[in-house]
Amino acid sequence: MLHAHLTTLHVVSMILELFAERPESSEVLLAGSGIQASDLASGEQRITRTQELQVCANALALRADLGLELGRRMHVSAYGLLGYAALSSATFGDAWQLLLQYPALLGTYFKLDLQVEGELAWVSAAEYRHASALEQFNVEMCLASLKLICDDLLGQPVPLVAAQFSHARPAYAKRYTASFACPLQFDAVRNAFAFPAEWLQRRLPLADPVTHQEMLARCRKLNVEFTTRQAWLQRVREALTSHLAEPPGLEALAQQMHCSPRTLRRHLQELGTHYQELLDELRFERAKTLLGQEDWPICRIAEELGFSESASFRHAFQRWSGVAPSRFRA
């Protein structure tokens, strides 16, 4: 399944808006992400998933139920063309079929699914493979947003029958009822919620066949462009990841990608990044992994990542994360 390596600043902007009235400054929320407050003014700016998750981690330290709160704010319109294509679908079931058809456009961290089991339709989120410490947060945000999308599509709250979560019952479990007004089960085998399957046949209040076909055509085109670019970016990332100790320069990397350095620069720019930023991101990800292993001294990590001196690595890590490697490890 193809997930997006790059995303918009939408979630980051929502987090800063959520904490706007609190004494914590944007610097605290953006610390270690490499995102500047000035970046939020650009609608074209793209960031990596690593950057987004760093801001989420900073905010989660300030509010435990952050995932639920963000999910309750992520309406179907937050998903762009795909959201509007779903809104104009004929039935609730058609809308869900469309949403699941374009996971890359949803920008989710999960594999989403909808299965009919007897008289119930179960919407589930599985196969999370990102920062493990943020799994519960992402589950809460994902399912709360999907429930809100259901309500937006139908123009009324969908009646939930049950909701299941694989994590333990949190201290703020009472706040789940704002999104999931139904029996809750924690320590379950899946992350999912259920509603009567008959609701899949409901006609949507904003159904419009002409608008739907136009939006659908745009989604197909956008999906082709998106998946092609993401697959190409994945090849670039793999080429750099396999040679972090001696990373190829821009020209050598361009040769591996069978294009000119100018074309490589242009493609990376269109994806909202550039060579050094991509290399730094991969080094940062690898550095955090190695710092979690006590048998890797700082000098060896620096060498593994292609730094000639430990001091250079320490300076770079301080710039990436806002803290020294030794403090991060501690």
From TrEMBL:
<protein>
    <submittedName>
        <fullName>AraC family transcriptional regulator</fullName>
    </submittedName>
</protein>
<dbReference type="Pfam" id="PF12625">
    <property type="entry name" value="Arabinose_bd"/>
</dbReference>
<dbReference type="InterPro" id="IPR032687">
    <property type="entry name" value="AraC-type_N"/>
</dbReference>
<feature type="domain" description="HTH araC/xylS-type">
    <location>
        <begin position="234"/>
        <end position="330"/>
    </location>
</feature>
<dbReference type="GO" id="GO:0000976">
    <property type="term" value="F:transcription cis-regulatory region binding"/>
</dbReference>
<dbReference type="InterPro" id="IPR018060">
    <property type="entry name" value="HTH_AraC"/>
</dbReference>
<dbReference type="InterPro" id="IPR009057">
    <property type="entry name" value="Homeodomain-like_sf"/>
</dbReference>
<keyword id="KW-0238">DNA-binding</keyword>
<dbReference type="GO" id="GO:0003700">
    <property type="term" value="F:DNA-binding transcription factor activity"/>
</dbReference>
<dbReference type="Pfam" id="PF12833">
    <property type="entry name" value="HTH_18"/>
</dbReference>
<keyword id="KW-0805">Transcription regulation</keyword>
<dbReference type="GO" id="GO:0005829">
    <property type="term" value="C:cytosol"/>
</dbReference>
<keyword id="KW-0804">Transcription</keyword>
